[in-house]
Fold this sequence. Notes:
Number of helices: 4
Number of strands: 23
Number of domains: 4
Radius of gyration: 43 Å
Largest sheet: 5 strands, antiparallel
Order of helices and strands: HEEEHEEEHEEHEEEEEEEEEEEEEEE
Helix content: 10-25%
Strand content: 35-45%
Distance between the termini: 169 Å
Low-confidence stretches: 1-9, 11-40, 331-336
Mean pLDDT: 85
Amino acid sequence: MKNSFMALASVALAVVAVLVVIAGVALSPEPARAEGSPAGERPLILRAAVTVDDNLVRLGDLFVGAGGKAEIGVGHAPAPGRRVVFNARLLYRIAQAHGLDWRPLSIHDHVVVDRESIVIDGEEIERHILEALVDKGVDPGRVTIELGTPGLRLHLAADANPTVAVDVVAYDPRSGRFTAVVVAPSDDPAARQVRVSGRLHEVTEVPVLADRVMRGEVIAADDVEWLRLRTDRLPSNTVLDADGLIGLTPKRTLRPGQPVRVSDVRRPIIVPKGGLVTLFLTASGMQLTVRGRALEDGGQGDAIRVANAQSHTLVEGIVTGVGRVAIPLPVAPAIN
């Protein structure tokens, strides 16, 4: 009987202990979390970098886990296309001011804030300036433009209308120099006005090679494309007509997209230096032939020096075909 009573008492104590544990868990206070971090979300984490698309930087841009305070503005965003750095001291002050439980781990903690933008690049600015210069008598197809500010770019707000207006302030046709005011967006009275200067240069359309052509290869029509280049930068003997390339062969390997000089190409060699040729001499309806040896390379129509194989006399003739050289008759002196 005594043993049965002790057994029941042990069971009762065990049940009470379990209830106490359960009650303790249920009644224990909720663990503390960072201010501004809603229940169930991860604690505050500092971002390394962020891109914003309007005029404000918000708590949620700087901290992950800002919860309901994420949309609170804490500073002005940089201008479109620019960036600003929030350092550790500033971040701590912002966190304290808005009741966030965050401290920097080191003085090197920071957040880089970039402002999203629409970019108006230099090529588009040049196009609008050329269009504005049409009223000044400029033919855009015959000139190229050089801006005084290389790499000029305009950054507009992400929600802006990407339009450009140009007002030509001055233009000198003799020198090609101009000054203009560029406004973007063109429909925004508060838009920034940028003063731009530059110069127009005459261009010439020249034939260039579309791909690399090796020495000895014959240039075909589909090897040639056209390129507009500044006239003042072309060598004086630049090939200006496609016929100056098609059917010819480079004296050396030629790169694509580069102007070709007349001296860079020649007719394909059909009489190699040192090769045996047949010399033709036509006189009084008769044609004489003799064997010879070419002393230099020759293409169709080239004048080359040839040695007579029998007499070893040196003569000059015109290449008329493969292995064929015509010897012109000497011109008789005039008789008074």
